[in-house]
């Protein structure tokens, strides 16, 4: 267990601590009454009996019936934690954090003690922990240190219907260890009724049904497709708020991501200001993956009688989190989803129509406490004819590099015969093997190399961990872990207030002096902050998000610890920027693109037109040759976080991947071959 962080950031005021202060004894009693009122409560004994009699049980129950919060507690109360702990996996980090906070309250213990959580770069659990909520990806990583999960007596793979990549891999791994560990109990829980597939996969494991209560939900469609679903969602929310009596229920709006949610929040705030005092307050509660911990609890606070709550959520509120008191659901019908082309090896995130199954789950959120209404911002024709029945499992639409590296380091070599619940496309597997081979993670025989073994220690995507491991050769590991940490924050680094955009942009461009790329700018930001002794004031002055920087520091500390584990010295290149760029190229060479005459770029390996994201410091400079960190598709296919390289480096770092003809600079015929230019 190594990717740990102290609990300072998670066990603070937000949840557990404030409990004793604010709640007192009667509050605790009320929580116990709430627990007894959940649908799952009447099935407690029956469920425990099923678990006692069978090693694997599939549990199916409507969202909000109490599966996630109650079942681990029942098992704990029944003594299953006497010889091991209960692990409960969640596809989403916010869910792991929020649910563990709730359960620690219900059990009257401090979060991080008996009840804890573990998500990437943040471990809020201890030796005392007996109920541990964790992301599915974290349990996957625990296999590396504990291949038979011997410290667990129960593993509950929750939200199984989400079929994330990690959950799918976990299925295969837990099924395997269950054979050699008859004492281990497995629960697979799902919010949808097609549990037969899980049961079949787990050798006809019994299906335990928890009948939910569900009130009727009236579905409204739009008459014509909406041109701007965000605006339509806002207008609909305001209409509900103004025309429906206060106190009859809250509103839940499904949006696709943080940026969209922040935009909606701003517009809603502006428009409600003009409503006058006769209309009650509209309390706006955003919830998305990177929402700071202390704000996450807000969505669960009861709404005052004189106000209405509108929750602006990503897909997280579809089944992972249950928010009580929702009567109106607004569903624009979109979700941000990963897609992957095994042909080109390119992965991108794009806003995609949801499936019918998702649409029905979303509607269901309106009918938990009473009859509700769902406003679908698409036509009934769209629903019937355009939406797929189910979402394609992630394993079939993602890059498998990470998973293959993980499985290889677990000693699972025969990937084609791995017991997948749904196998990935063969082309994706091959592509992953090809990439890992190109990155020197695997040798010709498909075995893990020394470099690969080191890389597997890092909880990062293969190219990022390669960049770190490769930095040893270029003597810049110090810079590289800062860059990797900054790239892993997941939230925005820059702060760009509407009224000070010019100032903010100027401050940002300061870090790009000398036309450096985004990676080096990230490193400069980190270092400048460090030089001010991590000053908050400095962040304000430079329009940098303090919170993001603190997270970067936490991540960096952990990466530094991991460097030590793999015995790479922390070395600084002392200003040799070329060394840094070369180390980046030695990992990101598959993501190389070259400038075209019209200012767009073509990717080198599988030609495709792409563009530098406007937020990049190189967006105006347009260097001839670049490598990029990731592709995102919004209005165009954009490369985010790019750095300039010299084409001859490609031959240098990846002679097996590129040939001289690939890197000939056709645009500068007069230049001697192999000499890049600025
Ligand atoms: P399921 O897993 O079956 O969807 P849960 O166990 O997540 O159901 O939810 C049971 C109840 O616990 C719901 O009423 C939900 O609102 C409540 N709950 C869950 N997490 C929290 C939280 N962090 N704060 C307040 N209530 C919560
Ligand atoms: Mg749940």
UniProtKB/TrEMBL annotation:
InterPro entries: DEAD-box_helicase_OB_fold, DEAD/DEAH_box_helicase_dom, DNA/RNA_helicase_DEAH_CS, HA2_WH, Helicase-assoc_dom, Helicase_ATP-bd, Helicase_C-like, P-loop_NTPase. Residues 229-411 form the Helicase C-terminal domain. It is an enzyme of class 3 (hydrolase). Keywords: ATP-binding, Helicase, Hydrolase, mRNA processing, mRNA splicing, Nucleotide-binding, Spliceosome. GO terms for biological process: mRNA processing; RNA splicing. The keyword Nucleotide-binding applies. Its EC number is 3.6.4.13. Residues 48-211 form the Helicase ATP-binding domain. One of its GO terms (molecular function) is ATP binding. Pfam families: DEAD, HA2_C, Helicase_C, OB_NTP_bind, WHD_HA2. It catalyses: ATP + H2O = ADP + phosphate + H(+). It comes from the Eukaryota. One of its GO terms (cellular component) is catalytic step 2 spliceosome. Belongs to the DEAD box helicase family. DEAH subfamily. PRP2 sub-subfamily. This is RNA helicase. It comes from Daucus carota subsp. sativus. The lineage of its organism: Eukaryota, Viridiplantae, Streptophyta, Embryophyta, Tracheophyta.
